[in-house]
Design a protein that fits this description.
This protein is an alpha+beta fold. Helices cover 45% and strands 13% of the residues.
């Protein structure tokens, strides 16, 4: 796809100066060159070169948003062949060069993939994959939702189907809550439980203690998850991306996470990892991390600066799409 077609696929780019448009188009092409293998595998270069369901879903989402049907079909074909091997419609979460490494699922990858397949059919008119949406959503409802121990009639989004959840404890990764995806999939498929999970998740994120990489929801409240990160770190920094994209720029969590990002000690850096007290542990000037901090502050995201690693470069592009669609 040439530059003109990419610009047409992202009409809001007209609001950017010409050099900004060129940067964004170039960034997508560079992303493909750096992280998309010729067979459709998205390569996480910061994690030993593995591929995972989250990365495949992000690749699909970027391809759809940029109007790149060739890349979309390539990514989905590899994903279905290598990760779509479970009988329940969910994906195996990890694949590495010596073959499939872990057949357990990761709920965020499944949620984002189903949402992107919906967007492809509904918004792009790309037919051929829409029959996968309903089975994924049914599996998410049946296997990846659990009652909140504090309010058993409310539903929480488990991080995986195998995760143990009972009346005393539900382990959560709050960054898996992509409210917009849950709502749009619930509306499209009639799975009202996804709508309930979205509404309850939005309320959950009002609680400052929920703004962590991992939490344990118990009858007595939110506690640290044993042997998992209690930091606001590499997972949780996606929270403002998803909230802004979901039209929740005024959500109370945005000010809290914006303060955490601002704990960086160096100019033009953001604190990418802060501990439970808000103390900065890691900081970065990578464009992708600065872009999600920009969304938390309600300002236009930093333009991509490709070559800073799979995760940062992916967030940089996703933030541009979120800015366009979430306002």
């Amino acid at each position: 796809m040439n530059r003109r077609h990419l610009l047409l696929a992202l009409p809001s780019l007209a609001a950017l100066p010409a050099w900004g448009q060129q940067w964004l188009v170039d960034a997508w092409n560079r992303w493909k060159s750096n992280y998309l293998a010729s067979d459709g595998r998205v390569v996480d270069d910061g994690n030993g070169g593995i591929s995972h369901s989250e990365g495949q879903a992000y690749g699909l989402l970027l391809a759809q948003a940029f109007g790149d049907r060739t890349a979309f079909n390539l990514i989905e074909t590899w994903t279905q062949a290598k990760l779509g091997i479970r009988a329940d419609g969910l994906m195996a979460w990890k694949w590495q060069l010596d073959g499939l490494a872990d057949t357990r699922n990761a709920t965020d990858g499944d949620l984002l993939r189903a949402w992107t397949l919906l967007r492809a059919s509904r918004d792009s008119g790309w037919l051929g994959h829409e029959d996968k949406i309903a089975p994924i959503c049914r599996a998410l409802v049946e296997k990846c939702l659990a009652p909140d121990p504090r309010a058993p009639l409310e539903l929480l989004l488990k991080p995986a189907s195998h995760t143990t959840a009972d009346g005393n404890s539900v382990i959560l990764n709050p960054s898996y809550y992509m409210i917009r995806a849950l709502i749009e999939l619930g509306d499209a498929t009639g799975e009202v439980e996804l709508l309930r999970a979205a509404a309850h998740g939005e309320r959950l994120l009002i609680t400052p203690n929920a703004l962590r990489d991992w939490i344990n929801v118990t009858p007595g409240g939110i506690k640290p998850a044993l042997n998992l990160s209690n930091n606001f770190g590499w997972d949780a920094l996606r929270l403002p991306l998803y909230l802004f994209w979901s039209g929740r720029a005024a959500h109370p969590a945005m000010q809290i996470v914006s303060t955490r990002f601002a704990a960086a000690m160096l100019d033009r850096h953001v604190a990418t990892v802060t501990d439970s007290s808000g103390k900065m542990l890691v900081q970065s000037d990578a464009a992708g991390f600065r872009a999600v901090a920009d969304l938390a502050a309600g300002r236009p995201p930093t333009l991509p600066n490709p070559g800073q690693g799979y995760y940062a470069d992916t967030l940089a592009l996703l933030a541009q799409i979120a800015w366009r669609e979430g306002k």
